[in-house]
Amino acid sequence: MMMSAQSRATSVVRMKDGSRPRKSWLKQIWGLKILYLILLPGLIQMLLFKLLPLFGLVIAFQDYSVFNGILHSDWVGFKNFAAFLHDDYFWRLVRNTLLLALFNLLFVFPIPVIFALFLNEIRVRAVKRFVQTLSFFPYFISSAVMVSILYRLLSPQGGLVNEVLNSFGIQSVFFMADPNWFRPLYVALNVWQLFGYNAIIYLAAMTSIDPNLYEAAEMDGASRWQRIFRVTLPSIRGTIVVMFILAIGQILTVDLDKILLMYNPSVYDTADVIQSYVYRQAFASGGFPNYSFGAAVGLMQSVLAFVLVMGANRFSKKFTESSLF
């Protein structure tokens, strides 16, 4: 009894500064063991599929052979990088990739912001939830299904769009075989699939806005448009800036699944991008796959994306005081 009383007394002893004695990190982990067990599968997945594959980037500097392995393949330095930079298709690939990324930035990025602003103004909760759910649904549709729907809508024989054109006396257009239509269709698919999902991020940011700000603006005679531009937009500016920086980091990345599904030789001039070219050359070419070439091009894209993100983050931090870090 004496020992138990003493142990209970010492358990509530405070340090001189008023804080409790610090537990060892092992005891802290053991006390939260259930939470760490829940976290464990995600950490294992990140380790196996995100961190460990980074060591495989060494093959970008090798003439990698599956039979010899990484340890015994010949080193070639920057030969694979030079091969891509001197390729006859290099500038066309860069142009197509940048144009698709630029159109994505111009349309896919701002449309969710605009949609979230209008959706936030709906006062009937049932209608708001219905519209939000309906807009979010395309995110769960696979790229293969979306492209199949697009083919069906734009088919020159029986497609809804061409049926409407024919009713106005306009001849049918084979949209999917016209290189001039590839970029608008690709961007339209991305907008359709992503705008509802991205809008959730901005709607979540809007929920943290103090309602007193809207009440004060309304008492001052601000109209609904003025409240959007004077209260809502400034309040979510930080979120918009962060999302824009992340979009800048993906400026050299396109949705390869959609491109390959929409791919055909008649649209190569506008549809052939860096990722599709690497796929053809490194993985779908005759003979043995050229993994070293694919790794070299992928590493170049990652380094350039990192530079763009750092530059955009620094610019944002300097002029808007909002940044990733």
Automatic annotation (TrEMBL):
Q: What UniProt keywords apply to this chain's record, in alphabetical order?
A: Cell membrane, Membrane, Transmembrane, Transmembrane helix, Transport
Domain annotation ABC transmembrane type-1: ranges? 94-312
Return the Pfam families for the record. Answer: BPD_transp_1
GO terms under biological process? transmembrane transport
Transmembrane residue ranges: 34-61, 98-119, 131-154, 185-207, 228-252, 291-312
> Where is this chain primarily localised?
membrane
The topology of this chain with respect to the membrane is: Multi-pass membrane protein
Q: Which domain of life is it from?
A: Bacteria
Query: Cellular location of this protein?
Result: Cell membrane
Q: Which CDD domains match?
A: TM_PBP2
Q: Which GO terms describe its cellular component?
A: plasma membrane
Does this UniProt record's set of keywords contain Transmembrane helix?
yes
The record's listing under SUPFAM superfamilies reads:
MetI-like
Homology family? Belongs to the binding-protein-dependent transport system permease family.
> Which PANTHER family does the record match to this protein?
BLL4140 PROTEIN
The name on file for this protein is Sugar ABC transporter permease
What is the organism field in this record? Cohnella zeiphila
